[in-house]
Amino acid sequence: xxxxxxxxxxxxxLICEGRPRAVGLLGGGVIGGGWxxxxxxxxxxxxxxxxxxxxxxxxxxxxxxxRRAYRRLTVFPLPAEGTLTVVQSVxxxxxxxxxxxxxxxxxxxxxxxxxxxxxxxxAPGTLICSSTSRLRPSLLQxxxxxxxxxxxxxxxxxxxxxPLVELCAxxxxxxxxxxxxxxxxxxxxxxxLVVRKEVDGFIANRLQEAVWREALWLVHDDVATVQEVDDAxxxxxxxxxxxxxxMQTYRMAIPHQSARRAMExxxxxxxxxxxxxxxxxxxxDGLLDKLAKQLDAQSENLTVPELEQKxxxxxxxxxxxxxxxxxxxxxxxxxWEQGLRDRVLxxxxxxxxxxxxxxxxxxxxxxxxxxxxxxxxxxxxxNATGTLLRxxxxxxxxxxxxxxxxMVESHLFHLRSLSAGExxxxxxxxxxxxxxxxxxxxxxxxxGDEGPAATGEQMLLHxxxxxxxxxxVQGNVREKLLALAxxxxxxxxxxxxGASIELx
Length: 504
Description:
Layout: H1 3-17, E1 22-26, H2 30-40, E2 45-49, H3 55-73, E3 84-86, H4 90-93, E4 99-102, H5 108-121, E5 127-130, H6 137-140, E6 150-154, E7 164-169, H7 175-187, E8 191-194, H8 204-220, H9 226-234, H10 237-252, H11 259-270, H12 285-298, H13 304-325, H14 329-343, E9 347-348, E10 354-355, E11 359-360, H15 374-391, H16 396-401, E12 403-414, E13 423-433, E14 437-446, E15 454-464, H17 475-488
Parallel strand pairs: 1-2, 1-4, 2-3, 4-5, 5-6, 7-8
Antiparallel strand pairs: 6-7, 9-10, 10-13, 11-13, 12-15, 13-14, 14-15
Helix pairs in contact: 2-3, 3-13, 13-14
């Protein structure tokens, strides 16, 4: 088998499993930089061709900012970072990669030239995707020798945090290209949305630009300032949109009526003439000056990097809130974290306790005294328990057929304070196990310290699926758990194991 064919055969297997080994990026602007961060932080090697001045430095700054955001977004260890390799040609960028992501400026001729060159240089079977926000894929395919492997994969800024990617096929796109692309983007924590028909601007941009046009008129006509327009959105319907979206929002406005009747009742207001969405104000020097002055005043003396960090912090908080409800973009975050958990198994070093991956304490885990809050200790030990359960084989299939463990008792001891930025590790020991019960002891230590920062002891009970009642652990899970318990029985019993709180 030729070397290139062998490589692509191996790549096909990787794509089927989800996460690619390597991608090639064409363009190093805010979108290309966002893609670099999204892929690198998910363990994917990136080959970057960014010929514009300052592109490489810009991408590295975006990556550093994204790394900071990811530390706040999830407590689960990320995979080892992929490499970022800067190359000097399109051919070098697309060499030995499974996916090419083009993010050049929105000029049709430029994109056609880049995509045609990428198609000629990439190995057969390589997916080629464009980040275009408005150009139809059939136009982008026009100069390609193999147009069947091109589709649009349109993300949203900031790419490293916003999960949506709109997938749109052209007239010549192979049917399986959409499936393969969706697998790749889902593997790095995104929500692929297939656009059913080719249309300028796709779906999300057409929606947000409609609001943008109306906002421009309100400022143009001195009905509202820039800040008042933004406040009107972010204190009202802007909070509903991450949960319901625009269509369900209107349906829920008249909950006592059927969906059809609710839509019918809104009909007259759409013809009232209060909106100017069919017109666009001319961006004259006067309007541009007004917009710029008000936007600068609204920034509250924050620099652009400071605004980017504030934006990311707020997005992290919103995504985590939605994750707690298992809804909308929060469900996408949960699925990505599940993938992180499944890729990381504890290290079983002979008869020693299970070593969980090290992680860094995020700044938002601190209380008013600058110390890690109690709930964060509980979360760390809970994560360690979850990792152990996956280690012995409790997966989705086992939970649905046999059941899982539930916490019935927990004790936490604080021994040393921890600060933001410090790296910690949890060691987990099985103190005892039988057909129904599982007793665990966790030790949380700061990397480099001899003594623990906290310990936690837990008693869990195996509960049968669908009953809510206790029942024996089953099959291979039982065998692996009891074998681990026998191994850990040879370890010294921790001093605080079995201790209770009392006044002495």
